[in-house]
Amino acid sequence: MFTMVLVTFSIVTSVCVLNVHHRSPSTHAMPPWVKVVFLQRLPRYLFMRRPEMHSARQRLRNQRRLKSETPSTDSSNLYKGSTYFVNTATARKYDPKLMENQDHAGSHQDVRLRTSAKFSPEVQEAIEGVSFIADHMRSEDSNESVIEDWKYVAMVVDRLFLWIFILVCVVGTIGLFLQPLFQNHTREVLGEREGERERQTQRQRDSVCKCVLARACILTLPPFIGCHGSEAEHRLYSELFANYNNIIRPVENLSDPVIIWFEVSLSQLVKVDEVNQIMETNLWLRHIWNDYKLKWDPDKYGGVQFIRVPSHKIWKPDIVLYNNAVGDFQVDDKTKAMLNYTGNITWMPPAIFKSSCKIDVTYFPFDYQNCTMKFGSWSYEKAEIDLVLVGSAMNLKDYWESGEWSIIKAAGYKHDIKYNCCEAVYPDITYSLYIRRLPLFYTINMIIPCLLISFLTVLVFYLPSDCGEKVTLCISVLLSLTVFLLVITETIPSTSLVIPLIGEYLLFTMIFVTLSIVITVFVLNVHYRTPRTHTMPRWVRAVFLNFLPKVMFMTRPTEEGEEGPIQKSKLPPHGAEVSHLNSEARCCQGDLPCQGGTCGCYQHQHIKYITVKSNLTQSSSSESVDALLSSSLISPEMREAIESVKYIAENMRLQNEAKETQDDWKYVAMVIDRIFLWVFVLVCILGTAGLFLQPLMVGDAV
């Protein structure tokens, strides 16, 4: 039982850990206390060390964070000593000074400020696409960081419960298996004390016996006193049974009945076989009647008032158990009967009876059973033998308590019944044993496991859909309930009249699990929907994304808005001006000719620089930039690169839109899961309470 509870709690914690492991920024926001407890403090206590991130992405993230913390410089200073470059062809080489200037410039936002001059639409769209790609990658990087934090929190929770379960398992196992050792030690100590007391008592008895023997040697007693008593009893027995017939009823008048005082003492309730509907009991049957032919005068026989004779020597009433479930109806006559000088005979034979008992398994294992035992003469009618009930109930003074059943009452009743077979009336004495099952055994071995399994059904709706184990858990629970149902089928009788309580609960739980499988399949269908397969209706968005989360106390994290269109920064009217552009192409040294104004040696083309000088006018700057960015200066390779950037940016935008729709479907599935989680919790509690409170009400009524 301890191990079963431990395993059940391990399943519960595993479901919680999986729920934490599969959380994402679109469904859950990490509270600050979770970061403090599970990312900072608990890893230290559990000797866990998280590796530091040394990737290029992490370095760029740190640079952006440091730069955001430094104050921004004046826009006029951004252009002093800076260079702009335009690739007139596909560049195969790069200038180290250019890369140093780019690293010094910082992020793409600085590039926007420095390239605030007029661009052609193709270049402007490419710049916006590159900016969008960078923002998208930053967002993905941030989301990945949050997901990694949730996974690390799940790992910390796993490690915490690992040590807790190890401690509980070790302490619980040692505590359970050390109990017998302590009990044996206590019994040994008590046994030594009892042995010492018995030895002292024995020594006292020996001393008393020695004194008695000493006095007996002094006294002179006639040696024939003991022989006189034995001879008188022998003579009495010979005279009583000289002409005695044990077949004839012991009555002086043939019309008189023999009065039998009958009483049953219950010694032990051996077992109740529910499958075969048999109750096995150990009884002492007390018969008292008078036999006028077995009277004597004690004075004539040395004062003998009682003698014990074999029961087969005297007449006995043929009282049998009517509802006997085995073939032998007669009581064993090996025991002796006690004769009184007045003719009264007391015969008290022990017997083990297997009586038929109609088992009502409606409230099994919290059931009450009413088993009857009907005693009466099989061959003598009421005019010949009349039964008298001694007391009003079965004698329970010598009853040995049963470990499975408790006797509430055992009332006795006398009936005079006329059967269809005969005209005469036959008396009988019927005892009704109203017994109650002690449910501890079945509670520990059947009820609690069923409750734990049904509780695991509820956890299916807390298990995240991304883990892929929801249907597996449901089917495992269903198989476990099937095994328990087979065990109960072997325990209870095969009857179609009623369904036992535990069977109703298992059937209720199996329906419960089946519905959970159906709902889980539906939830998984919603969870994996995409914009290409399903369109989310407006009512679904209104109900499951706006209304129900508020009712279920679910808060969806607010997503930070992406940066809008890149704004073109304007150059200040004074202070910084752009110089003329050196647009001459320098051909490579060698024998390769230039065709169409373009060098054939693309590998040795140079990047043209735009040198920023502070003494040029605004008009010359604008003219130079316009001349640079005119469509005639954009090579086919650059145009193809711009189109590729536009395609990548557009593809990422479409992926973002699809991901937002997928996240909405996943959140709808999570809301449905949460709804059925609370519905199933409520149904499970009410159904369990409604089923298991019925036997308590029946017991109170009794």
Give a short overview.
This protein is an alpha+beta fold and 702 residues long. The chain has helices at residues 2-21, 32-45, 56-69, 96-105, 108-114, 121-218, 225-240, 440-459, 470-491, 501-527, 538-551, 618-628, 636-692, 694-701; strands at 83-86, 258-273, 278-290, 306-310, 319-321, 336-340, 344-347, 350-356, 368-377, 385-389, 405-418, 425-437, 577-578, 594-595, 598-599, 608-613. It is found in: Synaptic cell membrane.
Index terms:
Neur_chan_lig-bd_sf; alpha+beta; ion channel; 702 residues; 4-stranded antiparallel beta sheet; synapse; 48% helix; Methane Monooxygenase Hydroxylase, Chain G, domain 1; Acetylcholine Binding Protein, Chain: A; 7-stranded mixed beta sheet; acetylcholine-gated monoatomic cation-selective channel activity
